[in-house]
Amino acid sequence: MTQSGIRDGSGGAEEDRRADGRADGLLAPVADDDGAPFFGYAARGELRVQTCADCAEPRFPPRPCCPHCQSFDSEWIRTSGRGRIWSYVVPHPPLLPAYAAQAPYNVILVELVDAPRIRLVGNLVTAADAALDSVDPARIRINAPVRAVFHQAAGGVAVVRWVLERP
Fold first, then answer.
1. Tens of pLDDT along 74-86?
2. pLDDT at 69 over 70
3. What is the dihedral sign for C-alpha 94, 103, 129, 142?
4. Number of helices (H), then strands (E), in the chain
């Protein structure tokens, strides 16, 4: 386990086991106290962003204190789940064996329509439970409109993935 709470793949077979007992080796987020609500909402199919209750500035990643006004009061605001691809990468070569099996796959950075200063990392896929290589990297374009879908990842955590609004 790394300090950031993301599994780093070095813990052997037990670490790579999913809740259903099948080993897949893919990384899964581990929610800390600040990020737990994000994953809780994702499990319900909602994309919410932590927002300062005093100055109304959205913030991501979640944290206890607003970087704008230093308030410790926050709320989770539901977004439309829509965004645009701000940037992307197709890793060459993949760093972990489980990802090599799905190469070439993409990692995209999405700017939210509802909160343009918020950018989320994920994968562009054809459907929530599709393989990471389900979209040909040649189809990815900066500014392409996308919407959030939710995938049940290893360890039972729901993660945000993205699908093109106009396939």
1. 999 999 999 999 9
2. yes
3. positive
4. 2, 8
